[in-house]
Specification:
It is a single chain. By secondary structure, the protein is α+β, with helices and mostly antiparallel strands. It folds into four domains: 4-93, Uridine Diphospho-n-acetylenolpyruvylglucosamine Reductase, domain 2, CATH 3.30.43.10; 100-218, Uridine Diphospho-n-acetylenolpyruvylglucosamine Reductase, domain 3 (2-Layer Sandwich), CATH 3.30.465; 222-333, Alpha-Beta Plaits (2-Layer Sandwich), CATH 3.30.70.2190; 340-419, Alpha-Beta Plaits (2-Layer Sandwich). Helices cover 35% and strands 21% of the residues. It has helices at 7-15, 28-31, 51-64, 118-127, 144-150, 157-160, 196-199, 233-247, 259-269, 293-306, 319-330, 332-339, 354-368, 397-410, 426-432, 435-448; strands at residues 20-21, 44-46, 68-71, 90-93, 100-104, 109-113, 130-131, 167-173, 179-182, 208-215, 217-218, 222-230, 251-258, 280-288, 312-315, 342-343, 346-348, 373-379, 384-390. A hairpin with a 5-residue loop joins strand 8 (167-173) and strand 9 (179-182). Helix 13 packs antiparallel against helix 14. The protein is globular. It binds flavin-adenine dinucleotide, D-malate (MLT) and zinc ion. The site of D-malate has 9 residues, from helix 12 and strand 19.
Amino acid sequence: MTNATDLLPRLTSLLGPAAVITQGADLEPYAIDWRRLFPGKPACVVRPSSVEQVARIVQICREAGAAIVPQGGNTGLAGGAVPDASGTQVVLSLNRMAAIRSVDPVGLTIEAEAGCILKVAQDAAGAAGRLLPISLAAEGSATIGGVIAANAGGVNVLRYGMTRSLVLGLEVVLPDGTIVHGLRKLRKDNAGYDWKQFFIGSEGTLGIVTAAVLRLLPRPKHSVTALLSVADPAAALRLLELAQDELGDQISAFELISATSMQLVAKHAGLKAPIAEGEWFVLIEAASSLAGLREAAETMLGAAFEKGMALDGVIAESGAQASQLWALREHVTESEAREGKSVKHDVSVPLTEVPRFLIEAGEALAAGAPGTRVNAFGHLGDGNIHYNVLVDERHDASHVNRIVHDVVAAFGGSISAEHGIGQYRVGELARYRAAPEMDLARTIKRALDPDNRLNPGKVLSA
Ligand code: FAD
Ligand code: MLT
Ligand code: ZN
């Protein structure tokens, strides 16, 4: 049996000194989250290079009674990947396990290690003429393991589903150090419980994902991107219905952007929409391998103008122009962070309730937290709005949370559509999820991690 004082020497002898960071500037990027809301103090950061090393680290930490915080690209928005301030938790970074092991363009699979950057995996699929349809603004830093552990959403969910729908196989290290090999490439596999689902979206609290097999799709040959201004979210929803009628399942993104989001992007990223100013904007992307997509999109937009659903708009003439339109959407989060303090709400409500939700949440905030500004944007096609509230020192974040989440609950919505609970929403989850659901979650956690050694205090209170 080891004790806490043996921890560092044992980890160092396993991994070598270069793979164990204990102090100095090198430690900082692993210790604080992307939003800089949750500064932690790791006992150390370990950077294994194989699943066997991950398993040994877990055993050593277990013997020393140390908790482990798995970390990928550390782009999470809920403080799930950083340690607490006790100085006792070990951050286990997967960033040295980044290989792409195979891309199969016929079987439509990619196998990658957990630390592989999402963009690198997208590009590898693209080079083989295939599509890995997980796409989010943090894709240049987020990792395959992090995306799986968070069950990330992003801009393509309305067509391809959340990350969960793309995971075929997983390799996981359990909290007792057992390696579970499940890197199967099967489309159909009903042999027993589908245990991998426990780990997808569990935010590093049930196991450490070390490698995965993801499903690819044929890459559509044509795509069309358009930015439109609309009078209000209700008009945006009518536009979605029209787009579904005219473009069917070719719609791959349908994003809502408020005037406030556009103003923040203009102010902090220097990017400006190439259409007349308006209160609300919709960014639509459709993709297909069949000819005639652009004509269909033009017909759809013509009808939208005729029916008064869209006020102004532009269709990208080239890939470069499409990227410029997407840059407006992709810079919202970063621009919001530059503006100052914000209280984030990553909520979903039934799709048709989005316009009413936006009105009622706005009214509730005006009454209960005067002086706040709403920066609303997000994945309208999924009923997922990032309802972020810009605040100053007068405003209390929990009070703002309560106002917004009470409205979400009244609409039968979720307090986290895609970013997860992390440490940011632990109290809110316990408040808004019914006791039997919370009990079930604790039963699962106890079964897999009875000593609460894996990411304690995240998702469920410690
Ligand atoms: P991390 O932040 O390192 O970790 C996230 C969680 O997973 C933590 O709880 C961590 O402990 C756990 N974890 C990480 N790796 C592993 C592993 N190998 N095994 C077990 N647990 C692990 N998210 C969306 O869903 N949709 C968006 O559109 C979106 N846009 C974003 C835009 C910006 C600008 C930013 C900064 C973030 C955005 N995010 C979005 C949030 C974030 O990028 C995603 O949640 C992403 O999946 C996190 O990946 P990561 O590798 O950075 O994970
Ligand atoms: C996005 O969709 O850009 C992020 O998930 C949102 C956020 O910053 O709240
Ligand atoms: Zn999002």
